[in-house]
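ok trying again, last paste got cut off:
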Amino acid sequence: MSDKIPGMAVHVSVEQRSQILGRIDRILEKGWLMWGDEQDELKRKFCERAAVDYAETFNSATSAIEIVGTWLAAAAPDRPPYALVQANSFPSVAMALSRAGLKPVFVDVDRETMQFSGDVVEEALDVYDAVMVVIQHNGGYVTSGVEDVRTVCTNRGVFLLEDCSHAAGSKLNGVGVGHWGDAAVFSMAATKPLQTGQGGMLLTDDAGLVEFAFRAKNYGRTEMFQKGRYVQDGWNAHLTEIQAAVGNVLHESLDDAIDYRQRLLSIMEDTAGFGFDEIRLGLDPAAEPNLYKVPVVLPSGVSADEARQVFAEDNIELGSSIYNFVTPDLEVFSGRFDRLDTPNAAWLAEHHVCLPMHNRMSDDDAVRVGKKIAEVWA
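nice, full thing came through this time. structure:
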C-alpha cells in the first residue's frame, strides 16, 4: 500500500531549522528569553502585512481575545454587553469573551463564505444591540463580506474583531487579513499556517487598546519586570523569544509556502479533470486564501464519514473539518448563551469535508488525491 497522506502536517525545512537554531543560539547567548528583538521583529512583520499601526504578542489567541473583551467591557460600561459570535466558530472564542464579562450570542453565517456577511450582522444587531462582532476567517478564507461587516459595525458604533487564527498570509485585494477590524487576533499554535508551537498576536490601530493589552499580559505592570508600576489587573500571557524566533523564520517563507499549496491544488484539479470552484467553499475573486484548509461540499447522498472511508481505502486522510459541529450545540454551552437560528451553520457541519493540504505533500501525493476526488465527485 502507498504511504499514508496525512490530512495535516507541519513542515519546517532543513534550511529553516538551521536559521531557527541560529536565532535561538543568539537568544541563549544574550540570556534574554522573555522579551526582546525577536518579538519586536515579529510584530513589525505582522503590522506591515496587514497595514496596521500596532501589534502585541501573546501566549495564545485565546488570551488576546479575552484581553480585548475585558478592555471593551470596561470601555463601554453603558452598552449591552452582547458579542455576536459565529455559530461555526472555535469554542474558545465564546469562552474567552464570557470570561471577559461579555455575553456571547451565536449567530448564523453565510453558507457560501462560511462566515458573517453584512446582511447577517445587520439583522442580528436589530435583535441584539451588541458592543462587539467577531468575524472568523474560517479555513483561511477572507471574503469581501468583511468589508460589508466593517461598514455595518462602523455605522452602528460596534467594535469589530477579526479572528484570523486560520488566516495568516491570506489577503483581500492585496492586503493582509487583520486590516478590517478595530482589532485582529492571530493564533500561532502548532498546527496553524504560521506557527510558533503556541502563541498569539493582536493587531490594532488603537494605541489605548495596545497599551492596555501589554499591561494586561504583564501582570498589570506598565513596564517589564519590577521597575514597572502595577496599575490594572493582569495575566501572565507572554510569548517567549524562542517562540518568536520560530515565527520570524517561518514568516519569511509564508508566501512561498502558500504558493506551494496553490500548486498542489492545481495538480489535484488537473488530475481530477475538473476545476474545484464548483465544489469549494469560501471563494471570492478578490481574495487570496492561504489554503490552510480546502473545504469542499460533499456530493449529494455522501456523508462525511463515507467520504473519509473512501479516501482511507487509498491511505489518504482528509483534513479536519471547519467545523463538524454547530458551536452553541456543544455540551459546554448548553443553555449558557443566547442564539439565533443557525440553519447554514448546521448545513455546513453536515455537508463539507476538507481535502488534505500541507507542505509535506509531494506532487505525487497531489496526483493521488486528485484521482480520489474524481472518484468521489464523479
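cool. The first strand starts at residue 54 and ends at 58. Residues 254-272 form the longest helix (19 residues).
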